[in-house]
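User: Quick sanity check before I run a bigger batch. Here is a single chain. Can you write out its predicted 3D structure?
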Amino acid sequence: MLENWELIARERIRDTVAAYTHSGDRGRVEQLAECFTEDGVLEIKGQETATGRAGIITMLTGVVEHASAALADGRPGIVRHFVTNLRFDEITPQLARTSSYFLVMTANGPDHWGRYRDVLVPVGDRWLITHRLVRVDASAETSTMAR
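Assistant: Done. Predicted structure follows.
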């Protein structure tokens, strides 16, 4: 049977994962960065790693602007991340390790998909990401984000 602290931690972690996704899809990079600790790390396999909230904002600002730009045929550029199968690989009162799958959709359809591996820690009433490893498994030929 799970203890109360763990049930609360799991829900707060789910909320952080959702806040990251919703903030990114809405182009709110500053709010996305607040899902990380002050010295949090965003590592996207095959790209330069961003450290700290300012570094994460810098890394993702161009991506968000490009992805949300209007398409050539005038349709609005949309981005929707779908995160599924969030698994708690390890959870203690001081640290959690999770893994999940993601699929990114744009106005063109499926764009790219892969895996998140996160390490989170409690900060006040929240659980924040201290390290996120993003692995893109594949992308569509029409991808506007993964290339």
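The mean pLDDT is 91.

User: Great, the batch can go ahead then.
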